[in-house]
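Page header: ASSEMBLY MODEL / three components / 1007 residues total.
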Amino acid sequence: MDKLMETFEKNDPVALGRVLKEVESQSEKGYEILKRTNKEKGKAHVIGITGPPGAGKSTLTSKLCKQLVNKGFTIGIICVDPTSPFTGGALLGDRIRMQELAKLPNVFIKSLATRGSLGGMAHSTADIVQLMDSFGKDIIIIETVGVGQVEFDVLEISDSVVLIGVPGLGDAIQTVKAGIMEIADIYVVNQADRPGADESVKDLKLMIKESERKDWKPSVLKTIATEQEGISELIDELERHKTHLITTKAWEKKRKERNYNRFVGRLDEIVHESVEGQFKTNPKTQSIIEQVKEGTMNPFSAANKIAEYIIKS
Amino acid sequence: MGQLFNKEAIEEIKKEKARWKEETLKDKSGDKEYFTDSGIPMDLLYTPADIEDMDYLKDNGFSGESPFTRGVYPNMYRGRLFTVRQIAGFGGPEDTNERFKFLLNNGATGTSVVLDLPTIRGYDSDDKEAEGHVGAAGVAIDSLDDMEALYDGIPIDEISTNIVTHLPSTTVVLMAMFAALAEKRDIPLEKLSGTNQNDFLMETAIGSSLEILPPKHCFRLQCDAIEYASQNLPRWNPVSYNGYNLREAGTTAIQEVACALANAIATTEELIRRGNNVDAFAKRLSFFWNLFNDFFEEIAKCRASRIVYKEIMEDRFNAEEKKSKLMRFHVQTGGITLTKVEPYNNIARSAIQGLAATLGGAQSLHIDSFDEAYSAPTEESALISIRTQQIIQAETNVVNTVDPLAGSYYVENLTNEMAKRIRNYIEEIEDKGGIVKVVESGWLHREISDFAYQMQQDIESGERKIVGLNHFPTEKSDTEVEVFRYPEEAEKRQKDKLEKLRNKRDSQEVEMKLNVLREKCHEDTNLMPYIKDAVKAYCTLGEIEEVFREEFGLWQFPLA
Amino acid sequence: MDKKIKIVTVKLGLDIHWRGIVVLSRMLRDAGMEVVYLGNQFPEQIVEAAIQEGADVIGLSTLGGNHMSLGPKVVELLREKGIDDIMVIMGGVIPEEDVPALKEKGIAEVFGPETKVDSIVSFVESELEKENVK
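Prediction written out in full:
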């Protein structure tokens, strides 16, 4: 353990891999590690990239990353893919779409499955962000399909959220429905060589104009990720957003919130685990549970009773 | 109209069949639903009612005449037996040259060479990417030097040559080398007969790799090779649309043919756009099918593919010459149908598939070796493959009459059904923007992957029966099979040769030729002449392909 | 939460036959594993990816005849980096007589082309179980 942390401090990517492996599986060792690396540098710019399947998120991330590496940044990428609700397994397919990054130095890619746990996903992602930050990554990109609540929570960890769409109305409607539109700071119309790109840009601009948001007016960019077009404009825009966050103190606030959320999240988990542990083993609570099942005690009184009992003990 | 059957007779047959079902067919086990491998429902018994509209002259005709249902040559195998081709290729060119000579001495009537992975994927034997692959699953060819050694002492102006180039990017280089070799031996290019594979689907959909050129550029190279050959190597088949490997990767027989035909359509459109007359190149387009164990379906596929091809060339592209409308194809038996358990059973499987190819009217045949699931064929297993073909040719008498299954109610019905489904699938591809677009979007990859996934599940559940594996599973432990070992020193030999070559050639000229090619990559022009110039200056395959990679960029293979 | 098994699947080197590994990847997902498919890669990149992903298992597939030269190299590189908790398994067309040598060089198991996915899953699960007990 000491040796692992020592090599971690020395910026050994193997150590980062091991540390993240523990944190990902939420093991005891993982929490030990998190306790010992609580000096978040808070320096890394956390960028969320989201959009519907097929919009080209991975390709855009890949090209973005390539240019950032050329500018001398070190990058961490976290790709979040959904776990199958039927099998509990997941096919994490983003990494292969970033194959061109395999030979670049200073790029660390971690694929995560949502695992459908009680908000735990967002917390362990936040933990991974913190560790990458401590490790010295300048920019951390979180890439995910912005559809479910889990992904939404994950995106909220980011400083800047980029929403990618492709020409055509269908996708725009889909993303509005998902509520993702509201948290995007930059809109990208990818595959802008396809017909309908200009209309999509116009629609988005109109939507932004009508939105309630006062602090930051998101811009709309056109990219053709496969041809590397529009990537440097995106980098400029991300820089501009970062400066905006810093000058308005939102940057600092974001970090405080992130710390608070991680604390609440962990506390929730501990409480939940211990409560669950207790009423599964305690014979007294067992009889209350039986009564609830039989309908002889109402669930609300039962819950209060058990909560009281456990908190007192 | 020359309909074969009169309405009254058909009605009578239908009525009688219903009666027969009721009265005679009491065994209800016949009621379970059966399907062909491609999912076409199979009836228990076929009658003329299943081909009620058949018009013999229009639908079948005679061999060597439109619509070529019965075969592309008038006297078929009586005139020319299908070519017995056995693939060979391992180690360095010297090793393969020796195997060629062995096969030719034992009755093979042409050479067929398979290349190692670095050659196929455009790397020299001394490139880092080649490590561990040199000469392993095929022969290593790095430069014109190697081409000379490969065909040393082999009369390339007399026997036909097949080069399994797979990818267009490999094809353009190797075709250029082969032409350069002929020129060095003072053989006129018109005398070269043979085939290379040259299918952009192989580069972008069928095989995955580290570095892949974007589909549209692969497609351009595919067309460059075809155009060049049609103008300079009149007896050369510059493309063999590769249904085979699509099928191996995971498609039905219908998809196999439809994808290959969709590619032929796209090629024809492109070459016409470039100003070529359809009759100038269409007669040299050839196809490559994979035959599995569904005997009648595979035969029907062969017949149906000829019909649909004729329609495409005649109705869509207005080809005039007969040769432009007849589909010639090579068959290789289904590698993926062979098992590792009880490997000698594979001899039986391959023989059945080879017989289907013969009944389907194939122009040439390769029978897989029974040890396919173990290693590259040994000399012994390669010989058994040749012998199997010779048995079909000499002992069964099936080659002596044309298309003997014509007129079978079932086979004719199935031929119609296959043709219909092939047309529909081509239409589906074209609705999605054509073959290049369905590759770019990853649609084709998903089709392949979904099919392969389903097939694996069917095998594991036992729904799809494989003898020795899940049906009468073997009780024997693994059979001892002699494993073929490729010469491991080949890698070192190739590297040494390359080092010498790089020292002795004119490096200024090399540089210059590569730079010309580099510029031409960005022009709407055929690259073949510039590639040939480069190989003649002893530029290596890897160097030329590096130019492609740099100028065309790389493409990410979609996750399927 | 149940411990999830994370496996990195890959085509070794230049071998082009993606069918088997893609089908296997999908079936491992169906069996509840988290699968990161890498496409084609060489040992250096495979090991790097497995480390970054925190993989429990690396599954190498090859039909290209490079099993002896590239397979053991993956294990070697892992060991060089001091990693002993990533299991390496192989599948594809690999001659029986090469299997002992591969195992000696640290490949945990070699699966032939007709292996049922179930048996790969139960092998991996039971081996990892053993690891956890240790």
